[in-house]
Prior knowledge:
By secondary structure, this protein is an alpha/beta fold.
Amino acid sequence: MDDNHSDTGVTCRTDSASLLTYRKRLSGIAEGIINNCQESDCYTHIDYDPIPSEGYVTEIIEKMREILFPGYFSRGKIDPMNLKYSMGQTISALYDMLSEQITHSIRHDCLRYNQPCSDCGDRGHKTALALLESIPAIRRILATDVRAAFEGDPAAKSHDEIIFSYPGIYAISVYRIAHRLFELGIPLLPRVMTEHAHSTTGIDIHPGASIGEQFVIDHGTGVVIGETTIIGNNVRIYQGVTLGALSLPKGAGEKLRGKKRHPTIEDDVIIYSGATILGGDTVIGQRSIIGGNVWITESVPADTTVIIEMPRLIYKRPVD
């Protein structure tokens, strides 16, 4: 049977007249969409000065990982003979992308909020250099994170396995880069970076949080670490942990912006899965252990274990 006909003899070919009728409507629809861009409640960025590109941000993260962990994420082989050439090429390309995206971020703030000119281009180049100069220090602290993850996880067979495959290390790596940019006063770009890691791993770390060395996020999905959180050294948290703010009142964006809203976690603390710790005045003291699924809004003294009382289980058997 002819592929263009059914048993009833009706053709399956496109009716060009009907298609033309539909397509004629497109110009009016497009005009409505375009005009809508001018309305005050429509969020757009239609300007000659671009904002940071998510595509470039993703590439920046991947190139940063190539430099932070040489030989792990490069497409080509890196050996002692080509190390200088290979790394030099990557650093040069990264510098170009960083300086451009940093400049876009600064200029975006200047224009959006009518700020005085702050030499965006010059600041972009200087900040890109400052971030690259920070790489040895970032690499050293990431090495403590990797070692802590390995020493605390009997399922890990090697440091390589952790670097390659642990979502916690990916999220922490991106956070430590973004945090340095946050410290350097760069708007927007650090948050775009950590939100990319969030979408990839399920781990949400605000770049403004302060996190010490030997930090481990085990498994990780559902972890939330707020902007003003302070975390000391040798802290381990598990999946589903929230280090957040207390219930926010109406207009909290203006009232509480810049104030401490998230908890402080001191050295050597372990926080098990599902725990929620809230509030800027809440401090979890050194060497404390926070059990799974607890809800904490008050400070906990050092060397304290907080757990939920054993629940009463009910077993029901099927009725004959």
